[in-house]
Amino acid sequence: MLGIGSYAFRWSGGIADRHPSTPISPAQILDVAEGLGVRLVQFADNIPLHTRSSDEIDALAKKAAAMGMVIELGMTGCEPGLFQTYLDLARRLDAKLLRIAPSAEESKGSDQAIADLFRALMADVQRAGVTLAIENHFHLPSPRLVRIVEMVDHPSLGVCLDVANSIACQEWPFETIEMLAPLAVNLHLKDFRIALDPHGVGCAIVGTPLGAGEMDIGRVLRTLEAAGRQVNVILEHWLPWQGSFEQSRQAELDWLAQTVSAARAWVPLDHRF
Q: What pTM does this model have?
């Protein structure tokens, strides 16, 4: 199934030291998804649902059900109390997938220590009927992630494969994709280009709408298909700050519309490849 992630609303939701006076709400993100013809939304760390009131969560669950919208959840860190909160949110929102990223501090631990963190969570994950997806984030190279998942060896644990994050770990995207595809239970799909400095002083990785950069979308999907993986596809982007919240909000909507349009050429809205 094709869906959108809350990190497509990085500036609209507020992040780090930049927070709009009126951040986009989870309910408004559902409205944007419906307007794009998308029936899946993954709420991650930038729209942290555990900070919302119980009444807002109940209203969100009711709205999603009425719209026929599927919800997935995302969190960072393996703190047991917060994890239990997200399992409860998964129950209330009928979410069947919880994406998780070890914190920067946790990622400094040994593979055995990280595997032990996840192993301690798996009985509750299985009882909740949820799939836990560890994302390849900026602090954990893919070879380590593969070892950790294989050490835990649980049918309810897999990888949330982000096609570009591991550039920060000095991995080129298809190195990451080929390593993680056999373990993937979720896909974060985004695009980028390499922008050369005009003075020849290095280069930068710059986000683009899907299809406007250098990501080979077909190859990504073929690699997953060859690995026998059937996963939901969550669309994100790395939109740079546009100078103001108003410009950044509008650019997010424009990029997302372009991204959904490009993705439809490869992934029908309700197709699991």
A: 0.96
Of 29, 34, 21, 18, the C-alpha closest to 252 is 29
**End-to-end Cα, the chain, rounded Å:** 8
Tell me the β-bridge partners of 132: 98, 157
Mean pLDDT over 143-157 rounds to 98
| CATH class of the region 2-264 | alpha beta
SS3 labels along 161-206 = EECCHHHHHCCCHHHHHHHHHHHEEEEEECEEEEEECCCCCCEEEE
In this predicted structure, the answer to whether residue 189 has a pLDDT above a threshold of 60 is: yes
* CB atoms near residue 201 (< 10 Å): 7
DSSP state at residue 44 = -
CA distances 98 to 199, 207, 255, Å, are 44, 25, 25
List the chain domain ranges. Answer: 2-264
Q: Is 81 exposed, middle or buried (0-12, 13-18, 19+ CB in 10 A)?
A: exposed
